[in-house]
């Protein structure tokens, strides 16, 4: 017999998205290579009094796989994303390697030239400029994709690029000239993710890719990430949505107190184990721990 609560939930979802709730279609595993993105012994001081320092981070993301990072907000996610994206440069240069090139000292634009794509957590303000059109926002990261030549903007190419994203990812917008702030959160997120994917990255880092978007848009974004990995791209997803991570990832690590656990295959872990790791258990017992374990600190709460 069916659970009436599940039937009610399914009916609500169908009303919200105008059809059956889509489920991501997983691809055959195509993981290969030693690592498109390799992080080795990355340590980084916090950039403000309320930040979290990173300690001895190790991580490898290979072509064709999705690696997830779970954790309670405030445990070093922001600092890690800043270090990986190039917002903050790190030393030594080999602490971050992209496609075999030491990239720790490179800025964000130089890392993009190596094939790094990045979807920030904040859609408006970092992923897109609110008062700029979608075509203009495409130019922010895609100027090297034929949208500018000889120092001059190719406006027709810029509009065409934006229109291709709108069509491919079913973005509900009033065309390439629609301003970013006029879109719903889900549609703007689909545009930002689509923009990064159309740049054919070798590695894509996505922060909270479906946070605050409706179920239909979330399913589309997740499927886009799965398809990207299926095409041989290395994908790193940082999210607080455990269901999302278990749904799309091949391996999963946890960040707590600025330290990263070993990434384990999804089949070898579960929500209970991940929850324990999120409390900082691996930090408390780890050989590299440099400070006393505090449950409050692991959850980002003030200590007594």
Mean pLDDT across all residues, rounded?
A: 85
Question: Structural class of the helix and strand makeup?
Answer: alpha/beta
Residue runs with pLDDT of under 50 for 5 or more positions: 1-21, 286-304
Major beta-sheet overview: 7 strands, mixed
Rg calculated over all Cα atoms = 20 Å
Helix content: 25-40%
Termini Cα gap? 50 Å
User: Could you say which overall geometry the principal axes of the C-alpha atoms support?
Assistant: globular
Overview of this structure, please?
By secondary structure, this protein is an alpha/beta fold. The protein is 37% helix and 20% strand. The chain contains eleven helices and 13 strands. Strands 3, 6, 9, 10, 11, 12 and 13 form a seven-stranded mixed sheet that branches. Strands 2-1-4-5 form a four-stranded antiparallel sheet, covered by helices on one side. Strand 11 and strand 12 form a beta hairpin. The longest helix is centred in the C-terminal third of the chain and has 16 residues, at 215-230. The radius of gyration is 20 Å and the shape is globular.
